[in-house]
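quick one, 253 residues, struct below
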Amino acid sequence: MKRVMSIIAAMVLLSVVGCSNNNSDNNGGSSRSGWSWQQRIFAPPAPLGWQCAAASADGAKLYAGAFDSYVYTSPDGGQTWAARLPGGMWTCLATSDDGNRVIGGLYDGELYQSTNSGATWSVVTVEGSNEFWTCAASSSDGSELIVGQYRGYLYTSTDTGTTWTPRDPTGGAPLAEVIWGFVTSSGDGTRLSAGRIDGAVYTSIDGGENWTERDPASGNRQWSAGTSSSDGNRLAAAALEDYVYTSTDGGET
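---
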């Protein structure tokens, strides 16, 4: 468990706040090659153990989860922030394109969802889960969801989190050996990918009904982060203390 916690703790939260043709600015930020960055001060104004982040498609609505703290929400691209209950060890967040529907999980805690841009949250019941949540992804409209666990299954939902189906892409590996490092979803929720810590990457083209094991790195890796294009064809998967691997054909190569 210590290794998993160190992997989670290695995540860094950054906010992209605009574009610039200059190499520096006068506001405490920095920029290079057209991108500019700005440090954001949260309440309380002190460093926190940031673990996860999510953003609406236009980047206006931002969400950031901290370990032993809260989810912080911003409606204006990071200019202002508000702490939202409940508190806990937040490890994953995902949102719909409009930023209204958000799902997030705690390590050794509940799965929560919000339908009002994080203003209020309700508990999501996932029958049979061990409540050690590590990763989450959402379709564009927030109706199709996938979440992963520490020493547990993947779970998918096609009704905005009302009901859930356990998924086992490994084909029966002992749950004590299965730690999900990331999950991704296409915009329509049909094309999914998932990466294991000390394991393989798996892809699905039917919303999680069937899975294919992939081998991006010619062997098992500690897959800790992944992302997907809206159509699910372009994938990127990052392995701890290794490289970032990309695919343009949905993970086939």
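Residues 16 and 37 are 5 Å apart (CA to CA).
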